Fold this sequence. Notes:
- There is one protein chain.
- By secondary structure, the protein is an alpha/beta fold.
- The chain has two domains: 4-103, no CATH class; 106-312, Rossmann fold.
- It has helices spanning 121-127, 156-164, 176-182, 205-211, 273-288, 295-302, 306-312, and strands at 4-11, 17-25, 28-36, 55-56, 99-101, 111-113, 133-134, 143-146, 168-172, 187-193, 196-202, 214-219, 224-230, 233-238, 248-255, 258-263.
- Strands 7-6-8-9-16-15-14-11-12 form a nine-stranded mixed beta sheet, with helices on both faces.
- The model has no long low-confidence stretch (mean pLDDT 87).
Amino acid sequence: MADTKIIVGSCSKTGKRFVIEARKELMDYKAINFIELPKSEGSKLRSDIAVTKIVSGKNLIPCRYCGSRKVSGCNCSQIRRQCRSTDAYDFQCMYCGSMTIEQPKSANPKIYVSPAHYDDIGEVLGSMNLTYKPYPNSLDCDVLFINCGSHIDVSASDLTNFVRNGGCLYASDLASEYISKSFPGLITYTNTGKTGKVMADVVDEELMQIIGNKIEINFDLPVWSVVSSTKGKVLLKGAAGTSYSGIPIMISQTYGNGTVFYTSFHNHSQASEKEKMLLQLLLLKQFSSNSDMTLEQMGALMGLNISAIKRKFGKE
């Protein structure tokens, strides 16, 4: 079933690995089955989704010691016998704090970044304690960032196939040429903007819940790529009453198994604290684009304090 996923857990004491079958209920997943993996399959299976917390469904019994339903969340192992790898299967292992929930590849993506130029997305990644490597003329990564004004050696067809096969591409401002060549018709650019501050409407619902419905963007370059039309989902657009009213500023679009993100603004030396936080949130949207996680869930997984961002924008 589409709403059922596999989560893999491992015991730090015994080395055993387990499969948790989880079903989506509203916005969260609940465990509906718990199975020990045989050694022959133990090293092959990986979690389908990233989760920070999960509880058992009503069809399963709770922890027999304390009644908790929090998977990998109780300390009842302290009153149990010393566990061994030869022990028989025990359903209680699902609740034991010694079991670690293994995160999928999407929670620890391989990231390549083009050289910094007018944009320096590497600085934003560093502020989130995320590891990345300079683009090595190869697309064997999960996420590729192309900074505004930088140039990389990649063909349009290779970039198209990278995203179609599940990769995530981020391009900012003057890197628009890579979007135009690799994804013709997705976004069209027919004008250039000028230096100055622009009030923007927040269109994306998730972003709106965190930062509110408006944000001021500072365009630091004398020219920047202005979007005339897009087939993608608009996340941010110029506010009514501005010179760029209704113009998309931040866009995302699923393509094949992957996702394309484009933003007309970027990280620069004059970027405000709020702008930098917005870019952090955009990165979270990229990392969660191929998962079932919300921005807040992905933020918790990656250690970004979403509550602090909400307070900065007056949302808490």
